[in-house]
Amino acid sequence: MVKEKLKIKNKFNDNLTADLRYNEYENKLPLLIFIHGFKGFKNWGCFPYMLNKFAENIIFAISFNFSYNGVGENDEEMTYFTRLDLFAKNTFSRELDDLGCIIDYLEKNRTEYNYDFENLVLAGHSRGGGIAILKTAEDKRIKKLITLASVSEFDRYPEERKKEWKERGYFQVLNTRTKQYMRMDYTLIEDLEKNRERLDIKKAVSKLTVPYLIIHGEEDLAVDYSEALELHSLSNKNLTKLELIANTGHTFGAVHPFEGTTDKLEQIIKSIRGFIYSDNQL
After folding, report:
1. pLDDT for 179-188, tens place per residue?
2. Contact 179/172 with Cβ under 8 angstroms?
3. Domain 2-81+91-154+198-277 falls under CATH 3.40.50.2000
4. How far apart are CA 226 and CA 56, in angstroms?
5. For residues 232, 234, 239 and 240, what is the CA-based torsion angle, rounded to 10 degrees?
């Protein structure tokens, strides 16, 4: 298996650090882009393991860090977030645009690798699932969609909290793993209000015209599985498959640092591989 690291520029001239994993086959491979979530990064816990497994199973797999996810460009096995200044300024629109730049790069460089750009799949975890849904709805280059423990909306904040947030200019969340307080500037809410139409996940999922796999743990304490049910209810049932996984939570038993795979994680990897290759020749 080949693992290659790239620096891809976004429209603000920031570097997006991306990992490419693939095996060198003569035939073109399905192309999978994996999107991390809130307080996440491409090397979190089980993500590298998952992407390695996809590459071993004849998929060209890519993961990347959002430009303002709080991870420095040279940070690999993250213990702490080193760029909380950037994390504070992150917005949903910036993440959507970052993902668009990754897709643009892959389209432009399609002759350099053995992936099939016409077989482009997005997979997003948690908040990254919401980003994946929105991008799929607005970008016809995407042919399949997978969400893992996805949120069904971004506006998850009570009005009283948003009022205090505006008055103070920022809101802080505690990262229970690192014990760091992570600030989010009020620009996040301003972006949400300014771009409400573009950032409407529920509306976007109702417009999807590609095959869609929804995976969610029934014991998810971070994003309740009712949000998966809502996404499914709004989607085209002829194109959507819902998999609720019993006895597992938001990260399907995986932790950071990675301590090994789990039965639920292996089940999910198998489901994703099968979904990507459905209607495709093995």
Report:
1. 999 999 999 9
2. no
3. no
4. 33
5. -10
